Amino acid sequence: MKKTMIKTAAFGLLLIGMASCADDLNLSSIDPRSSQSYDATELLAKQYATLGLTGQAGPAGKADISGDEGESGFYRTVFNLQELCTDECIWAWQDNEDIPALTNIAWNSSSTRVNWAYQRLAYDVTLYNQFIYDQTGKLDEDIIAEVRFLRALHYWYFLDLFHKAPFKDTFSGELPVEKGGKELYDWIDTELTEIEGILKPAGTYNSKTGFGRADQGAAYALHARLALNSAVYTDGATKDYQKAKDYCDKILNSGAYALSTTATNGFSGYAQVFMGDNDENTQAMKEIIFPIRQDGEKTREYAGSTYLVSSMRISGMPYANTDNYWSCNFARKDLVEKFFPNDNIPMAAAGDALKEPTEAEVIAKDNALGVTTTNVIAAAGDDRAMFYMGVGGGIRTLSPGKQITGFLNGASIVKWSNQRINNGAAHNRTFSDTDIPLFRLAEIYLTRAEAQYRLGQTGPALADLKMLTDRAHTVAHTSITDQVLIDEWCKEFYMEGRRRSDLVRFDLFTGSKYRWDFKGGVAGGTGIDSHFNLYPIPANDLAGNPNMTQNPGYGK
């Protein structure tokens, strides 16, 4: 977080009352009410810092939560639960802890990565509750409303992933109670409605001053997302599609935001939204409604955009603008087939390999073969097809076959980038500068399109879809179906931490209607039971909090 958002207060926080995360988080806590080492600005900064940082001392050291600090960050934990189990990507190293459970959709109540996400959400909510408890009446009410928004966002993640939450909206020594389904949906709905009239107007922070803070635009975007998924969250009791449309209208009618559409220095408008200078590039900023702030020097982390950039690159790939290559996440064939249904993506062959080439030699070879990302985009006829199948780092196949053996088992995804539109140097070549657009205007167009479709308003829905296909320089749709919509959600938002939610909403995540590579643990995919639409409540939380109950299908 740059400017005031970067300045993280050097203190821990008491975790009174959220002991339901009975893993005993082993926090080294200092009660800020008894410490003189912080001020209100630092305290507010800490609330936002929980989205992109994991502790008090850079990428590792003085962690918020015990265990592997890099694995425990907010964005990385929820991203993994939303992406690694879907048709979009595979984690290359299947011997890593609990990774096969996500790859194959075979988790249980003892799954480590499910527990990490649950703990992080619970920790952050406690942080927000303490801030609201301590600072109400001391700080301006719009600042309190910002933190209430962050709390509502976290409860949305609880609802989406677990269908319930260990719920508290106060800071006390009482254990959280269980609130889920329609009850939790209604609470988030009401809470957002209350704070929307208090927050600064939409677009207030859509500039270099305050970029990354929540205003009405952020609350409207979350409200629209909540309402679009209402039938899932309330078990069919509520279908708030009109409300989803209304909140999209509020954002679009505000005039505060605009799609990034103009190519610059060879980078498409779409690509610029995910680049290392997306907090300086005015065009990219206008699309971003609410980002997680990142800076390679000032917010060093392994759980934010460093994770996104480094996990999708291997040493030898060109234009990386980083020296930090993890070689972990690659595209499932099913993602590539959204753009290349006949598997005809331009790609290097085994005989094209180079031995220890320089970056210039890789670039020259890729150009000669016609397998650059630019070639891929041209062949797809869609600016969003940001894959790399060249010779850098080795020769890739389109899919692993029967067994996942490494990073070159699929296309490399280069959508997330630490590059800058002027090709300038990164702030740091280990950690990423790229802000994470948690909400952006493209989601509002696509949410409104889907809501209108579900309300029977086909013409307006097609007009909204056309805004995105025109920006991508691809063919506009002339009709709209469930399949058109779910494919557009994928093509526009792949690897942005939401795919599972969309598949669940279209009833495609479980069952046999849609199969993808390694769904159910089988190459080519197989059907899975519907209880996997929800994650289990971690067993250690059930042991520590008798108020919580397990989700169906996971035992007691």
Give a summary of the structure in a few sentences.
With 556 residues, the protein is mainly α. It has 20 helices and eight strands.
Walk me through this protein's architecture.
The chain is mostly helical. The chain has helices at residues 40-49, 74-83, 99-104, 112-135, 141-162, 181-196, 216-228, 230-233, 241-254, 269-272, 282-287, 305-310, 333-339, 359-369, 373-380, 441-454, 458-471, 482-493, 499-505, 539-544; strands spanning 89-91, 164-167, 177-180, 288-292, 329-331, 387-388, 412-413, 436-440. Residues 1-36 have low confidence and may be disordered.
Main sheet: which strands, in order across?
Answer: 1-5
| Averaged pLDDT | 92
Number of helices: 20
Secondary-structure content class: mainly alpha
Largest sheet: 2 strands, antiparallel
Spans where pLDDT lies below 50 across 5 or more residues: 1-36
Q: SSE order, as H and E?
A: HHEHHHEEHHHHHHEHEHHHEEEHHHHH
> Quick one: overall form?
globular
How widely separated are the two ends?
41 Å
Strand content: 5-15%
Number of strands: 8
The multimeric state of the shown protein is single chain
